[in-house]
Design brief:
With about 375 residues, the chain is α/β, with parallel strands linked by helices. Helix content is about 40%, strand content about 10%. It folds into two domains: about 130 residues, Aspartate Aminotransferase, domain 1, CATH 3.90.1150.10; about 240 residues, 3-Layer(aba) Sandwich (Aspartate Aminotransferase, domain 2). The protein has twelve helices and twelve strands. Strands 2-8-7-6-5-3-4 form a seven-stranded mixed β-sheet, with helices on both faces. The chain has a three-stranded antiparallel β-sheet with strand order 9-10-12. Helix 1 packs antiparallel against helix 7 and helix 2 runs parallel beside helix 7.
Length: about 375
């Protein structure tokens, strides 16, 4: 039996998304063409855009389709500095590499001054420190931006995005949030949550890979990252991935419209996993806030057990026993040095298991049995 516990890396594509993509294949026209076939393809793109906008409570013009969350993050950060005049960028060392590597590029090239928001060993950011920093920059009349992910992809910590947006707005600072892990998983109302930039990847909520979107608030003076044609109202050049957009839209609608049921079901699975792991492995620890279902994303659980992890082979042993999970972000698999997030928290290590609407409690039971066998063999 195969157990898939790596949904924070990517989710199985839903039947709804597959059906929408197959139907979109029949509309082969270029959405930039003005003839009938082009208009059919354009209609797919715009219908999806309107559906997303209505569920996020924003304008369709604020949604731009991209190749995924990484492109959306790059666009937001680079545009804020080059087009919006941001001189001071505040972020965290536990951000996804889609943000942290761009921030390093901007810093190393002298494009802005980067400062890292302090955090404790649970990954909780010091927002009082941030408030003082933003206040000082506002008094000097210097533009600042904050970039913090809504929920951490490795430890599941959730920030209060509405509170953070109010903090930034009160000091005239821009706010970018990588919402890749929470888009279509948690309620997001962009009429109330005043982020300026947000990012989405379709494959995190049962859509296809290689397609996502950027939210850019109306009035933000953002110029294209990718130049060429006039697609996406001139915001992002390149022929739209109509098939991918169709799949993304179907998956997004499904997950947002059934979100309450998904939260209830998957939270139940996560709670069950926490209880089972604590019961069978009393010395187990949970990294970040992932073991607190009130303060972490219901899809992510990151644990450490000194005996299971002592030889550094647990994830390999799980894999050969049919359990597919992660030691950190899948985007950095094969990298030397381990998880930058766990390193920043002074953690001894960890294994991330992540759930979806398709995860069952029986899979958790089998997972715990496999862990018990691995422990007994050590």
């Amino acid at each position: 039996m195969s157990i898939y516990f790596d949904n924070a890396a990517t989710t199985p594509i839903s039947q709804e998304a597959k059906t929408a993509m197959v139907a979109a294949m029949e509309n082969f026209g270029n959405p930039s063409s003005t003839h009938a076939e082009g208009r059919k393809a354009k209609a797919i793109v715009e219908t999806v855009r309107k559906g997303i906008a209505s569920r996020l409570n924003c304008s369709p013009s604020e949604i731009t389709f991209t190749g995924g969350g990484t492109e959306a993050d790059n666009w937001a950060l680079i545009s804020a500095v080059k087009d919006c005049g941001v001189k001071h960028l505040y972020t965290s060392v536990i951000e996804h590499h889609a943000v942290s590597h761009v921030v390093e590029y901007l810093d190393q090239n002298g494009m802005c001054k980067v400062q890292y928001i302090p955090h404790d060993d649970h990954g909780i950011h010091d927002l009082k420190w941030l408030e003082l920093e933003l206040k000082s920059k506002a008094l000097l009349g210097e533009k600042a931006m904050v970039s913090l992910m809504h929920a951490n992809n490795e430890i599941g910590n959730i920030i209060d995005l509405q509170n953070l947006s109010e903090l930034c707005q009160s000091h005239g600072a821009y706010l970018h949030s990588d919402t890749v892990q929470t888009m279509a998983h948690l309620p997001l109302d962009f009429s109330k949550i005043r982020v300026d930039f947000a990012a989405c990847s379709g494959h995190k909520f049962h859509g296809p890979k290689g397609v996502g979107f950027a939210f850019v608030r109306q009035g933000v003076l953002s110029k294209p990252l990718i130049r060429g044609g006039a697609q996406e109202r001139g915001a992002r050049a390149g022929t739209e991935n109509v098939i991918g957009i169709a799949g993304l839209g179907a998956a997004f609608n499904m997950c947002v419209d059934d979100m309450a049921n998904d939260i209830l079901k998957v939270t139940g699975v996560k709670n069950y996993a926490i209880l089972k792991l604590k019961s069978e492995f009393p010395e187990i620890k949970f990294n970040g806030l992932s073991g607190d279902v009130e303060k972490s994303l219901y899809t992510v659980l990151n644990f450490y057990h000194h005996k299971l992890h002592e030889n550094g082979m647990l994830n390999f042993q799980l894999d050969i026993n049919g359990v597919h999970c992660s030691g950190g972000s899948a985007c950095s698999s094969g990298a030397v040095g381990g998880s930058h997030v766990l390193n920043a928290l002074n953690s001894s290590g960890g294994t991330r298991i992540s759930f979806s609407r398709y995860t069952t409690k029986s899979e958790v039971d089998l997972f715990v049995q496999i862990l018990q066998k691995i422990k007994s063999d050590i």
